[in-house]
Specification:
The structure is a homodimer.
Chain A lengths: L3 E5 H6 L2 H10 L4 E2 L1 E6 L5 E6 L2 E6 L2 E7 L6 H10 L1 E6 L5 H6 L10 H5 L3 E2 L8 E2 L5 E12 L4 E14 L18 E3 L3 E10 L14
Antiparallel strand pairs in A: 2-12, 3-4, 3-7, 5-6, 6-11, 7-10, 8-9, 10-11, 12-13
Pfam families (chains A, B): Flavin_Reduct (PF01613)
Family (chains A, B): Belongs to the flavoredoxin family.
Organism (chains A, B): Mangrovivirga halotolerans
């Protein structure tokens, strides 16, 4: 029998800062792992790992991400506000260490692309750089900036402008097989994971048995 | 050589609705998978799968989730607004089909817990039900409701009030091993995945080599 802890609000407050940061960053569950590509008005490219991307809607095609303007990745935030564009690029196993390293606080006049050995790829005159190594890349235009009053963070909402995805990973029904593409998932601040398919399930209706559509 | 598609804004608009919904729901990357437990003012419990939970901050401990009030899971939204409390419960392989099924549009006077065979568990007088089957459970108090103007969705921000987690899954540094706990991750609307650890990496600093801390 496992010993289940009951952790209340007061014991969270009393935790060591690093302990609390690790624990609270894990309780949401597995997170998406993207590299966010941007460029400054001076032309310096920037790349930073983001695990806070969240689906907002499909029509119009919108994704959001949480960003802390006064902390890392502040360059990412400033570049998006200044230029209005950013890219999100799935991270695969071949470059997850560079992705993790790109979160280091480099000087603002240096490109994290150069520092980490990742490739800034400009495609079709899109204003922000994609990550050349990534298999699944999406370019966004900033359309809404939201203040989260509870802790001074922001949510940036981007509209999908263009996607670059190998055709073979897209099913007939539009499902994108990001497992086959090798996209990773992250837990907390630093735990990297591959995936293993269990199943795809049919649309749920009352009194109808679920079927595998995998 | 893989044939990489360039999908632009216009081709997204022209897509069949279901195709677009599947594709855009996949491009964020792997998502967390939680069951959200709530109760109505009439005492009817509700449970619904949520893949839009996002980390907002560790101090104070905050998580957010995107919710579409005019659609499923509207009961979840209304219950949270009415009572001010909700729970998020990681989904493991033993009950992922019930989790998926709980998204079906049941009548509002019936509990999805009963309909799907999941257990509504009330702990320590917390106002919202936890999911008895879940290994990682967190109870939240609603502290902020945010309108997303771009598409009429909302983000609800919850503050962590209590957590119920087996002690053996929490490392000395606070890292919660949700892989060992068996928590699943989801892609798109209906793809369920287990995970496989690659590594935990040390804190990234300029000019310092990353180390495995796994």
């Amino acid at each position: 029998m496992k010993n289940t802890l009951m952790i209340d609000r007061l014991s969270i407050e009393k935790m060591d800062k690093r302990f609390r940061t690790n624990l609270i960053n894990c309780i949401s569950g597995f997170k998406s792992l993207n590299l966010c590509g941007t460029i400054s008005t001076e032309g310096v490219t920037n790349v930073a790992p983001i695990s806070s991307v969240v689906h907002i809607g499909a029509d119009p095609p919108l994704q959001g991400m949480i960003i802390r303007p006064v902390s890392v990745p502040r360059d990412t935030y400033q570049n998006i506000i200044d230029t209005g564009y950013f890219t999100l690029n799935h991270v695969q196993e071949g470059f997850y260490k560079q992705a993790h390293q790109s979160a280091a606080r480099y000087d603002r006049d240096k490109s994290e692309f150069e520092k980490t050995g990742l490739t800034a790829e400009f495609i079709n005159d899109f204003k922000a750089p994609f990550v050349g190594e990534s298999i699944v890349k999406t370019g966004f235009k900033l359309i809404e900036e939201i203040d989260i009053r509870s802790n001074g963070t922001k949510m940036l909402i981007g509209e999908v402008i263009q996607m670059h995805i190998p055709e073979s990973f897209i099913s007939d029904d539009g499902y994108l097989d990001i497992h086959k593409a090798g996209s990773l998932t992250v837990s907390g601040l630093d735990g990297y994971y591959k995936t293993e398919i269990i199943d795809r399930l049919s649309y749920p209706k009352p009194d109808k048995k679920l079927e595998s559509i995998g």
